[in-house]
Design goal:
This protein has 663 residues and is of the alpha+beta class. The chain contains 23 helices and ten strands. Strands 2, 3, 4, 5, 6 and 7 form a six-stranded antiparallel sheet that branches. A four-stranded antiparallel sheet has the order 1-10-9-8. The relative contact order is 0.08.
């Protein structure tokens, strides 16, 4: 009965979503306040019914209700309780329900926190949100119903995919979806702006917090997914350029461009049309990522579905929303007023530079991801595009972009001079050159590109705080006054500095682990030794272990340095009994910012086992840099000046709309 209630709640959510998609938009077109006022309450009701449906499916998993096909195919009564919860979204149907739950959540948040928005803008935004919700609710009910029954009910389930039985799965998909779906709000704002034919700085102030929140969540999802694959799959890498990894990276790149473009629009009312286009493309890339994962056109550890009917349905959603929004953009963009002009050497020019390189990088990743699919569809030839292509194309695009990161904030709006900005970065530039020289001296000149990469990362990290140091004026005002000025700087400035610093940290981690990691692969038996990076690994043997739904062979490895035992590590090989599927459980020891990484391979006929060992210098900076970027984004999101400015502007805009209507 609970499952039927969940199914019925989805149907009711669809009905209300249809109402929300038509009535408020019609009211906005006619200037009818009563029709527009239906949007907030309907959005909240839609979210409530979707949440009820999601709770019903979660109950079915927790209670092991195997009469539901979805639960039977993706759960087992002996699974730990945590993985019964995560199994809800560890499959196609459940993950799509999570998708619409988050989409409904964002619509409800717009309804709750949009009271000071212009009434017409809020009605159009919530109407556009309902269009997307309606499409995905139809997709779930007609092709991916998670409440499908089977009678008689099996006694036991088929278990969750073993590689998904990890704490990372409890965190990664929800964060990724919060990022994907969060950009639906910026998409809806763009549609609303084009419907009304009005776009200004107040619009940008309303869009920025939603774009920033989505960007933070998407960053968190990508970071968590990268680390999950790193330790769970036992391959020792942090990024594989997997097509589904790329599907999340592309909207992140375009979303980053959107954030910077919105700044220009907010401060100078420039790049209006470009910002609208970026808002459309960012969510379009999120939809494209959904299509790639759910359609079955890609084979990946991240992919769930392989039903052509589902792929065709999502393809139709893509065509309607991407094609429809671009057609609307082509029709309405010429009617939008262009923004103010600026010189190439200016802060606006630096942000345009940023946008061009980020957009080109996103296009490069998109082409590399879709080209094999295109070739297979046209000629039937199966090819693969891997790391060499992306390293040769994406990497060079990032170098000028990263070099420009510290310079842009030091340029003035509208018109500036390049030389004064570089003067303020003279010390930073000297320290970056020193870092290059030290790196070359330590490595004896063997890694020139790596040394340049280290210098670039130092340039980005230290240069991130150049604007704060300049605004504080320590040199002229003194230390005490400088500290007071620093404390009074806007939170958005601090957030930008921390995000750019995190970007430099990630770059430093990538350069170090790519250029200087050590690796050792050996077959070992009890008592054998393996040396790596000054450590001696002594293999003591394997010990059998039985978990709740798996059996494992756990290795005992004594790690010594200078002949003294320092610690033990325990990599393992597991076999999940229901599916008979093996997994590799790596053992990782963090030492400072570096890591010693161990993984077991296959057994040889003589009873020995392959031990793979890596020494990964400063690798944790890759993910800590991502965390720092998230912290910076969170600090910027808390900037009160932006919130107050948006509210005041929107109130003034509302008064103007009322006066226009009365006239």
């Amino acid at each position: 009965m609970i499952a039927e209630t969940g199914h019925y709640a989805l149907v009711l959510a669809l009905v209300l979503s249809l109402i929300q998609s038509v009535v408020p938009v019609w009211g906005a077109a006619r200037g009818d306040h009563r029709l527009m006022a239906t949007a907030p309450g309907t959005a909240i009701a839609v979210f409530a019914f979707i949440a009820l449906s999601f709770a019903a499916l979660t109950h079915a998993y927790v209670t092991s209700d195997f009469s539901l096909v979805n639960v039977w195919a993706n759960s087992h009564s002996s699974q730990p309780l945590l993985y019964k919860y995560t199994s809800v979204w560890g499959n196609h149907e459940g993950s799509m329900l999570l998708w619409v739950l988050i989409l409904g959540l964002f619509s409800a948040l717009v309804a709750l926190f949009g009271n000071s928005m212009p009434e017409r803008l809020r009605a159009n935004v919530l109407g556009a949100q309902a269009w997307v919700l309606t499409a995905f609710l139809l997709f779930i009910l007609f092709t991916s119903n998670p409440f499908e029954r089977q009678i008689p009910a099996p006694f036991e389930g088929q278990d969750l995919n073993p590689i998904l039985q990890d704490i990372g799965l409890a965190i990664h998909p929800p964060l990724l979806y919060l990022g994907y779906v969060g950009f639906s709000v910026t998409f809806s704002f763009a549609i609303a702006a084009m419907l009304s034919g009005r776009i200004d700085a107040a619009w940008a102030r309303w869009v920025r917090p939603w774009a920033l929140a989505a960007w933070i969540f998407l960053t968190a999802g990508i970071v968590m997914g990268s680390y999950w694959a790193y330790y769970e799959l036992g391959w020792g890498g942090f990024w594989f350029w997997d097509p589904v990894e790329n599907a999340s990276f592309i909207p992140w790149l375009v979303g980053t461009a959107l954030l910077h473009s919105a700044i220009v629009m907010e401060k100078r009312e420039a790049l209006k049309i470009w910002t609208i286009l970026l808002a459309i493309i960012t969510f379009s890339m999120s939809l494209l990522g959904t299509f790639l994962v759910r359609s079955g056109v890609l084979t990946s550890v991240h992919s769930f579905a392989n039903d052509p009917a589902r792929g065709v349905f999502i393809l139709m959603i893509l065509l309607v929303f991407i094609g429809g929004s671009l057609v609307l953009f082509a029709v309405r963009a010429p009617m939008l007023k262009s923004g103010s002009l600026f010189k190439p050497i200016s802060r606006e020019g630096a942000l345009v530079f940023n946008n061009l390189f980020l957009s080109t990088a996103a296009a490069t990743v998109l082409i590399g991801t879709l080209y094999p699919l295109f070739m297979e569809a046209v000629s039937g030839a199966k090819i693969s595009v891997g790391a060499p292509f992306f390293d040769m194309t994406f990497g060079p695009l990032m170098v000028p972009l990263l070099a420009m990161v510290p310079i842009g904030p030091l340029l003035s709006w509208k018109r500036s001079d390049f030389y004064p900005a570089m003067q303020r970065l003279f010390i930073v530039f000297g320290l970056a050159i020193l870092a290059v020289a030290v790196s070359l001296a330590v490595t004896r000149g063997a890694e020139v590109l790596a040394a340049l990469g280290i210098g670039l990362s130092v340039w980005v990290m230290l240069g991130a705080f150049a604007e704060i140091a300049t605004r504080s004026g320590f040199r002229k005002a003194g230390f005490a006054t400088g500290i007071r000025r620093m404390a009074g700087l806007p939170r958005s400035m601090w957030g930008t500095a921390l995000s750019h610093f995190g970007l430099g940290m990630t770059l430093l981690g990538i350069v170090m682990v790519t250029a200087y990691q050590g690796e050792a692969v050996r077959e070992v038996g009890p008592g054998d030794h393996v040396k790596i990076a000054g450590y001696e690994l002594v293999f003591n043997g394997l010990t059998p272990f039985s978990g709740p739904n798996f059996n494992a062979d756990v290795a005992s490895i004594d790690v010594r340095r200078g002949g003294v035992s320092r610690f033990e590590m325990h990599p393992a090989k597991r076999i999940y009994t229901t599916r008979g599927m093996p997994t590799t459980e790596s053992a990782i020891k963090t030492i400072g910012f570096s890591q010693l990484y161990l993984a077991l391979g296959d057994k040889s006929p003589d009873g020995k086992i392959v031990l793979r060992a890596w020494w990964k210098p400063l690798i944790t900076l890759i993910w800590l840099g991502g965390v720092m970027m998230m912290i910076g984004g969170g600090i910027s999101l808390m900037d009160r000046r932006l919130r107050v400015g948006a509210a005041r502007s929107s109130a003034a805009q509302r008064r103007k709309e009322v006066s226009d209507a009365s006239a």
